[in-house]
Design goal:
mainly beta; three-stranded antiparallel sheet; 8 strands; about 10% helix; about 35% strand
């Protein structure tokens, strides 16, 4: 981080917040509150992630768990690769309920 008034060569630590000058990583044990737009398209940890691709007309949200794509959400709907468990009630219109019964083999 540098400008004519302030230069940090080795990083910066303020309370629980650390900014690494070598990697650019920001680490904190506190909460991050962001008031502006964020250009993040993926949240990942190990081999699990949530990735967002926004093309303007054919966007997707892909959820990967333990290296396996488990859910893919598009403007057309949502595909689930694993077992889908619904813990609460399902509210649907008659047309939705008919389509759901057909999809489930009912």
């Amino acid at each position: 981080m540098a400008n004519s008034n302030f230069v940090v060569h080795n990083g910066l630590t303020v309370g629980p917040l650390t900014i690494s000058a070598t990697t650019g990583d920001i680490t904190t044990t506190g909460n991050l509150n962001i008031t502006g737009g964020v250009g993040v398209s993926q949240i990942a940890r190990g081999d699990s992630s949530v990735a967002v691709t926004d093309t303007g007309s054919n966007s997707t949200v892909l959820i990967t768990v333990d290296g396996t794509a488990q859910a893919n959400v598009t403007p057309s709907g949502m595909n689930v690769a694993g077992t889908l468990t619904i813990a609460g009630a399902v509210a649907a219109t008659q047309a939705d309920a008919t389509a759901l019964a057909i999809a489930l083999g009912g």
